[in-house]
Amino acid sequence: MKERLYLFDTTLRDGAQTNGVDFTLSDKLAIAGMLAGLGIDYIEGGYPGANPLDTELFGEPRDVDATLTAFGMTRRPGRSASNDPGLVTLLDAHADAICFVAKSWDYHVRVALETTLEENLAALRDSIRAAKAKGREVLIDCEHFFDGYKANAPYALGCAKAAYGAGARWIVLCDTNGGTLPEEIEQIVAEVVKHIPGDHVGIHVHNDTDNGVANSLAAVRAGARQIQGTLNGLGERCGNANLTSIIPTLMLKSDYAERFETGVTPEKLRTLTHASRILDELLNRAPNRHAPYVGESAFAHKGGIHVSAVQKDPRTYEHVPPEAVGNRRKLLVSDQAGRSNILAELDRIGIAVPKDDPRIARLLDEVKEREAAGYAYEAADASFELLARRMLGNVPQFFDVDSFRVTVERRHNALGDLVTVSEATVKVRIDGQTMLSAGEGNGPVNALDNALRKDLGPYQSYIDDLELVDYKVRILTGGTDAVTRVLIESRDGEGNRWYTIGVSPNIVDASFEALLDSINYKLIRDGATAA
Ligand SMILES: [Zn+2]
Asked: How much distance in Å is there from the Cα of 193 to the middle of ligand 1?
């Protein structure tokens, strides 16, 4: 029999504290649905009463297939539970569970709460009892528990015991400042579970020493049976414990997999990469390519020897199979590339070429030559695919660009404000017909993009949902012969992303090249036929 570990997600509450993160109600509902689909047990939706959005979220029953949890404060010192409007709002929220935050560090009780140690304990007990009377499952986040334990162990432990005694289902030990190390976490949790059964103890840590995952696992080893964290490690400062790394570790590493089970099944685990990317999508953030398990580079292999070994047996350079978490293997094409990288990449793209085809060697030479000139194909998979398809002779010539012109003008507008505007004209030939389009933009690349995409004749419907999401510029060599490398990230309406590259001494020219690659790539991928 395996022991059950419970997963508690606080992406929508603690994760919402992240700089630049601003969820809408529909974002929150979409993410809650996704988390429930993944098999998360508890979803902390927010703090009703603290802001209109969270009040609205908990204003009516929500159809979420998990224990929907509302966060809030225990009753204020010196008030009764029924006479504290904040607590009343929390108790009335449409939530299955309530997670109270409570002080467990004597210093914080005196300085921040400005009350006595006894009154803090009484507030804790009263609030738990009031929530239980309302039929809610109760959790207590013991804030600053580890720092509090180091300062005054009997008091910190006293808070945890008082909460358990009053009927809280989970006593959650928090490393609020995130500075505690795994060995301390393991030691202190081991002490706590001597007084409170481990299947009532949870762990909530922040990642300030980059040990968020390690600290959560340390607490599990010591006996805690609930883990709180966020998707993609979202959270203020350095983030919360990253559930996107913790979940596959629990399920794929034998030390944990043999002892524990969670609500996440192997089938659901295969949706993890998708869930991680969707969250980034909703937040309009570029996914972290180097994220463990789910990052684009997590199973990317570059060196020629690595690539040929991985093809013989993936276990040579992969700690788990990428499919287990819904990710995929990626064999990078780069200046270190040997034939094996090129062949493997062609295979992945779906181009069938005999191994001894002389065009493979020509493609390899071309890649090496271009990389020497500043191209970097490992970062630009779509440009590589185009190059390969062109050299293998199966890219239709959709359109030709005869010429373009861009102007940049800085002037005063009608309101007298100083503005910089760009205008571009592009002359495109499609099926013998010449078309001239003009566009405006806040910069030359934006203006060119607008002009080029204003009218692409028969291809217009293919590029309507194409969007440029990121644009990176790098100057490669100093001095007068500097070369500019532009990397463009594009996406379509279905959330597919691809990267294209352009290199030129002129930044606008380099950008235009990357832009053309992006459009051509989309046309090929969507099966457009040349007019
Ligand atoms: Zn926190």
From this structure: 21
